Amino acid sequence: MTTGTKQGYADLPRLIALMTGDEKHAGAAESTLDVLWVLYDRVLDISPDTIRKPARDRFLLSKGHGPMAYYAVLTAKGFLDEDELAGWGGLDSRLGYHPDRTRVPGAEISSGSLGHGLPLALGTVFGLRARHLDRAKVVVLVGDAELDEGSNHEAIALAGRAGMEQLTVVAIDNASASHGWPGGLARRFEVEGWAARTVDGRDHEALHTAFTTPHPGRPLAVVAVVEPKG
Amino acid sequence: MNMRETFLATTEEVLGADARVAVVLADISAASLTHAAERHPSRVINVGIREQLLVSVGGGLALAGMRPIVHTFSSFLVERAFEQIKLDLNHQDVGAVLVSYGASYDMPTAGRTHQAPGDVELIGSLPGWTVHVPGNGEEARRLLLESIPGDDRVYLRLSAQENAQAHLGAGFQTLRQGSRGVVLAVGPMLDRVLAATEGRDVTVLYTSTIRPFDAAGLLAAVRTTGTADVVLVEPYLAGTSAHQVAEALADVPHRLRSLGVRRESEVRSYGEIADHDLAHGLDAGSIALSVKEFLGI
Question: Distance of CA B281 to CAs B236, B274, B275, B284, B286, Å?
Answer without folding.
Answer: 12, 10, 10, 8, 5
